[in-house]
Amino acid sequence: MNQLRSLWVILTTAFLLLGIARVYFLVDVPDSPQLASGQGAVKCREYESPSRIDVSKPLNMAVWNIYKQQLEGWDTELRSLATDNTIILLQEAQTKPQMLSYVEESGWHSNQAYAFAINGEIAGVMTLSEAVPVKVCAYTKVEPYLRLPKSALYSAFSLSNGEILSVINLHSINFTYGVTEYSEQLDALVEAVEPLKGPLIIAGDLNTWSNERLSVVRDKLSLIGLKEANFQPDERLRVFSHPLDHVFYRGVALQHAKSIDTPASDHARLEASFVFDEAKEKGSD
């Protein structure tokens, strides 16, 4: 059953990618202006009143490809994730009315990268957080031949010790021949985050369904000091025996990570708990 589901994921994604030329945006959810971000461009938004994350407490984060909320029970699963996590990275989120209502009623701060729209409903990576970020950027690029999308959503959060926590929500391109374009996407990401100081977390659906893709991700992210989280239990969606979803981190210590399968999506939900180095804390005013 899992192999059939994996094959369906690949075929469906290939169909979408071959048939749609995507334009990217950065949007607040709900009710905010859309910021266009064209080919090869970056669009950012800064917030005047960011809130701070307390480094004396663990940082709990969830990562989940929500499959455009197509399967029953996604809202129940999302509410369950919200119980224990203060940052949630969603891939394939879609701003259907039920999702918009959930975000508004739950009080999450939310940003979304505009990948494409179906009947006026935006689809793309979405980052939910209890804290208001300092800055959010949508990184975008369109492939030159098949017009395939490449995107990531970067969020900078202020910490109580004076540092900045950088969180990147990534949904890597899926359908390519070879790893040239796939590698280029990671190269652009590495170049963007290499100058960043402070803790850094890169997570999402990286579509690492081959040895070559997995090696590209591990090699390039290890060069900038990121470690890969191991999950216990590990029920991540696998294609050709390779897990697609990952969490990479530096500047924080991983306490534990787990991945639980759910019928509410074709991907399992990931949860990770991190602690900060309190020795660096400067205190708060």
Structural description of this entry:
Strand 5 (59-65), helix 2 (74-84) and strand 6 form a beta-alpha-beta unit. The protein has five helices and 19 strands. The protein has one domain (30-276): Endonuclease/exonuclease/phosphatase (Deoxyribonuclease I, Chain A, 4-Layer Sandwich), CATH 3.60.10.10. The chain has 285 residues and is α+β, with helices and mostly antiparallel strands. InterPro entries: Endo/exonu/phosph_ase_sf (IPR036691), Endo/exonuclease/phosphatase (IPR005135). Residues 63-267 form the Endonuclease/exonuclease/phosphatase domain.
CATH architecture: 4-Layer Sandwich
In percent terms, what proportion of residues is strand? 35-45%
Overall structural class, as computed from helix and strand content, comes to alpha+beta
Please give the oligomerization state of what you see: single chain
Most strands sheet: 9 strands, mixed
Distinct helical segment count: 5
Give the proportion of residues in helices. Answer: 10-25%
Q: Termini separation (Å)?
A: 55 Å
CATH level 1 class label: Alpha Beta
Rough outline: globular
Q: Can you tell me the CATH superfamily?
A: Endonuclease/exonuclease/phosphatase
User: What count of structural domains?
Assistant: 1
What is the strand tally? 19
Global mean pLDDT: 82
Q: What sequence of helices (H) and strands (E) makes up the elements?
A: HEEEEEHEHEEEEEEHEHEEEEEE
Give unreliable regions as ranges: 6-25, 29-40, 279-285
Radius of gyration: 18 Å
- CATH level 3 topology: Deoxyribonuclease I, Chain A
Protein name: Endonuclease/exonuclease/phosphatase domain-containing protein
Domain Endonuclease/exonuclease/phosphatase: 63-267
GO molecular function: catalytic activity
InterPro entries: Endo/exonu/phosph_ase_sf, Endo/exonuclease/phosphatase
